[in-house]
Write a structure and sequence with these properties.
Length: about 240
């Protein structure tokens, strides 16, 4: 029992350090964030820090790993559901990621400027690489199932999956750019059409990659975007 308690304490303390690092990463950027910043934030000694992480680089690796694991907690049940057909799995996969973003909207918008600063360019690349590595096998399972069910027509499931994950990351970057413009100009309704069109273009591309029927995946609508941006008035085309 004592060993279990110690393991729990170790996990709790390391997570406290990771939480502080994540806050500082978004506010200051990885290059400018120092270990001393973390020590000051948590009011701990350098010895306490190095008991859990040997270096700033090791801390970053642990933070990226935690981010991937947290996403997988929501995604794995979808992948492993024996009752969901592949097309629905792919749709729920996307919808789950969207729901996670919506649930953390205030946090995401607040940290976005720091996350997409030049100081975090290297970290963003590492996170993207880790995301492609971790999510590609998951999406491969969906694509393989779709091929077996006859709803996807693509010869190489793993390559198609990697392209899909890459497209999803690119879509997130495009959304971030548009949301930053909304934040700067405070006129979200000006960008609703751009956001909807961007989402549609990427979903079209994903359908094309797997050979799925046109419009078989969910398209974002203006109502959803308006709710996300807390905008009441929209422009007309």
């Amino acid at each position: 029992m004592a060993r279990i308690v110690k393991e729990q304490e170790y996990t709790e303390k390391s997570n406290e350090i990771l939480d502080a690092a994540q806050r500082l990463l978004y506010s200051k950027g990885y290059e400018r964030m120092t270990i001393q910043d973390i020590l000051t934030d948590l009011q701990i000694s350098s010895g306490a820090f190095y008991h859990y992480f040997n270096s700033k680089a090791i801390l970053l690796e642990a933070l990226i790993e935690r981010m991937q694991q947290e996403a997988e907690e929501f995604l794995l049940p979808i992948i492993n559901d024996p009752h969901l057909p592949a097309l629905e799995k792919l749709q729920v996969f996307f919808a789950t990621l969207d729901r996670l973003k919506a649930a953390n909207k205030s946090f995401l918008i607040g940290m976005m400027r720091g996350w997409y600063s030049d100081d975090n360019a290297g970290v963003r690349q590492k996170v993207n690489e880790a995301t492609i590595e971790r999510r590609t096998p998951l999406v491969t399972l969906i694509v393989s199932q779709g091929i077996q069910e006859g709803v996807f027509s693509v010869p190489y499931a793993n390559h198609a999956a990697e392209i899909i994950v890459s497209l999803m990351l690119s879509m997130e970057n495009s959304f971030a750019r548009l949301l930053l413009l909304v934040e700067q100009e405070r006129e979200g309704f000006c960008y609703i059409d751009d956001i909807v069109d961007t989402y549609t273009a990427y979903v079209d591309a994903i359908e094309h990659v797997v050979g799925a029927p046109c419009c078989s995946l969910y398209r974002l609508d203006t109502k959803t975007v308006r709710e996300w941006l807390d905008v009441e008035e929209v422009t007309t085309r």
